[in-house]
User: What shape does this take?
Amino acid sequence: MANSRYEYVKAFEQPDIILPNTWIVVRIDGRGFHKLSARYEFKKPNDLRALDLMNAAAVEVLKDLPDLVIAYGVSDEYSFVFHPSCDLFERRGAKLVTTIVSTFTAHYIFLWGKFFPDMPLQSPYLPSFDGRAVVYPTTKNLRDYMSWRQVDCHINNLYNTTFWYMVQEGKMSNTDAEQELKGTVSSDKNEILFKRFGINYNNEKEIYKKGSVVFRQYQLEETKTGPESKVPQAQGEEESTAQEKISKTQQEKIRKQRRKAQVVVEHVDIIKDEFWERRPWILSGKPGKLPKGA
Amino acid sequence: MANSRYEYVKAFEQPDIILPNTWIVVRIDGRGFHKLSARYEFKKPNDLRALDLMNAAAVEVLKDLPDLVIAYGVSDEYSFVFHPSCDLFERRGAKLVTTIVSTFTAHYIFLWGKFFPDMPLQSPYLPSFDGRAVVYPTTKNLRDYMSWRQVDCHINNLYNTTFWYMVQEGKMSNTDAEQELKGTVSSDKNEILFKRFGINYNNEKEIYKKGSVVFRQYQLEETKTGPESKVPQAQGEEESTAQEKISKTQQEKIRKQRRKAQVVVEHVDIIKDEFWERRPWILSGKPGKLPKGA
Amino acid sequence: MANSRYEYVKAFEQPDIILPNTWIVVRIDGRGFHKLSARYEFKKPNDLRALDLMNAAAVEVLKDLPDLVIAYGVSDEYSFVFHPSCDLFERRGAKLVTTIVSTFTAHYIFLWGKFFPDMPLQSPYLPSFDGRAVVYPTTKNLRDYMSWRQVDCHINNLYNTTFWYMVQEGKMSNTDAEQELKGTVSSDKNEILFKRFGINYNNEKEIYKKGSVVFRQYQLEETKTGPESKVPQAQGEEESTAQEKISKTQQEKIRKQRRKAQVVVEHVDIIKDEFWERRPWILSGKPGKLPKGA
Amino acid sequence: MANSRYEYVKAFEQPDIILPNTWIVVRIDGRGFHKLSARYEFKKPNDLRALDLMNAAAVEVLKDLPDLVIAYGVSDEYSFVFHPSCDLFERRGAKLVTTIVSTFTAHYIFLWGKFFPDMPLQSPYLPSFDGRAVVYPTTKNLRDYMSWRQVDCHINNLYNTTFWYMVQEGKMSNTDAEQELKGTVSSDKNEILFKRFGINYNNEKEIYKKGSVVFRQYQLEETKTGPESKVPQAQGEEESTAQEKISKTQQEKIRKQRRKAQVVVEHVDIIKDEFWERRPWILSGKPGKLPKGA
Assistant: This one.
């Protein structure tokens, strides 16, 4: 039973190599998490256990894939970022995306019991995620993408916080709350929270307001100030030729170095320059110095 | 904090709609299963628990996605097939592939303990899968793809069975066994098995020799014979216009009908016509009759 | 001055191989022909010289590229069709499309003076064309594409013929004619033509009503009638495996055979089966018999 | 005769929007110019008429498409460059490529008689060109692409010049000349030219040694020197957000401004920074000042 007469079907596979020297963002989203969060009784507007579980799974993905330089999560979505110099899986799009989706899912399911000890998963209602890759040519575009997600987090969280206070504490119907919030701006919502419920939105948990930023921890740089301050550019934009020549061996060496760094989760502003200036290894793609005593 | 200045980044998402009226095969593969099978002590050449776990996860995927018409699994790979008339997720490639990869992974992890009760998963060494979509324009191409995988299963299994008998029973070193098998044809391997170990390869388990075929069960058709026998064509090839007009409502109705059918796993020949002739609903994409008493 | 430090830029070229075993339609359209037809005083609603020039250029394209099996032209657009078995330029999309666009343009410019002897081209106002490839998986889809273009030809020509009679003979303003035709159906337009201008639309030139079909001429088959009549399928759908194995040498031989056939232009119905039944070489991709005495 | 039953075929067209904020290079190549140059007796190693014709056609393409910022030509190839901020044809790849190929071909055919007055084109042996788009994310990548083409020009021209002197003046056979040149470096070829034929390669025509650079002419900037000198970055890399918001109206205004500038052909070094520093409008995408008295 020779296979040669069927092997022609291999020619139907189409290549999907992602353009070199570009930022690759793989964004994953929970499938049907609206229903799922009801089934497993997630708390509204934020369920800390669910967010911690998302973050724990994301940390494992970063540990597993040293080529990732940063990730950002909010609600049931997570964005994972590969550096322009990344050549993992020869930059095959489907391979990069499915590897992240599958690794994330595996850890999410595996860790569920740790975060929801009293709420076991019931088959077939298992959490799952879809994903896609988006490509950004410049560091500015990448930063704008990250800012977009964090602003979205803020806007949604302010809305949801207000809405659920109105419903849970204010005993309004969903429809009435929705109706009243229609057309309001941030200051209106802040005022509702403060006047009616005595809530200062600024005192809400950072994880709810800022989302979660996951990255490798090295020694922070001093914050530079003044006009000479400069956000580091992607390696690729300054010296891509050199970088193109990084050998497989060197790539593997860099991966090993990265594995030594601790992967941390922080809930901080990533819109302003400071975050990126103090952590130049993220945008440069060059490992920093391990913190003393680490 | 308005988001409008960042929203332009959405324009970088590129569409990936799969060509209409074509068969879509999503093939997933275990990531690093060579190491993984060593860590969790999978039996050689075949570990029935591992195969049953693959099949159980595949069955859940077919239950979850009624648009799938058939799947075929061997070793740590599985191919899932969408019909040409499928419009799930508007045929967005990444969405189709990641949904299957994630759903499969979720059930694989969730079911692990049932199939490996004495061998718990150890983080971070969790099983995961990558995947890709391949598109086939005609039913013949699709059948040739399926045949290709099943012939591959046969070739690999005959080799592995012989190799591991030589090593495990014959006490040969891996290198010696490999060396002796180099250049042998099927009959040589059959003879080694029979002469040295008294093994008739034909009596090996069908699941090892044929792999696993997963599909919805309806009433089988009589086997036709003679020249008028005809393998059903894909709906799309005969009446695609009509099919193009299937409304969303009708699609949803067909999905509901499909959910009623039982999803079964069989270890049978899918190279010859008979399998397809007796189960015309697979290639036609039209639900068959539910078996009596079901 | 070594080039090696720059050669990495070659890696940015992305493959664009068209899916095997599918029909490839390359459609080209005149760029800004509205203005151009005014500048060179094309007659309304149809300029026979302009159509004959389009057809002459299309004939040269078919002569130059024996892999093309048929082409269909109407107004300033032309669709060129490659057979599923075509492997010209390894099916690279951009190469196929640009070769057709450039060859067509070259002949169009070169032949201009023959068809417009009193109206020389004036630089920079030269005719040019853009193009794109569309892929069809089945013969039915391809035939529906061809039908779509021919129905479009009919609809536009009936409208334009009526409109220009109303303007040129009926002395109506463009706006008034447009207004009156809004919402009319075919029979209304036929009636306007007949009642007001004594024109029987059926007697209009076939080239205007049907467009132009370009193909290689072999001996016609007898028209089959009755239920056993069958439109030939694409080779690929019946025996693609075999076809996949056509060697480069055989491909070149087939090309030579095809070059011997005469390329003809006809203005006939391509919606009904008859056209295709009598010329089975078009859909089968196998050269027919040269006509006697040719 | 309604068209609705066929219109579904439109859904088979697949989008091919090029990634925003990237450099687009459309490279065209003469089809079969080896044979063609023999048929029309092009001079070896360089035919000035043929190069001038290529340049004249390229100038017309830049005049026709103000979105192009620069082009570079050598032998029978030409590279046309769109700025990252370009939104012509919504950045549809096939449309951009075919428009350039067709416009170039049209002018090439139209202008032939001017450059080859004694050698009329003979149908069907007409010149034609194929083309493709390549995308570069950063200005450095784009500059490296341009350098790659110019170094290639140098390497090929030195080889060809030496080879043809050996054959035409030295009366060597093609094979012998080829054999002797195998493995030689630049200095060897320079020496052959000088010692045997008294030719100083440096005195060869710049158009042969450097190729042809086509761009819009504005007032040159002073050459900056010293460490503060800086090659301008693409607009997109510094302020892409703003640029994203350039309205259609503004785009059209910029196009009009560009049309006023003269398109020039120069044979100069584009590898070093100086060319780009003195003509900042090319990389910035912002029109410069028209030269005084222009």
Observations:
- Chain B has one domain: 7-213.
- Residues 37 and 43 of chain B are 8 Å apart (CA to CA).
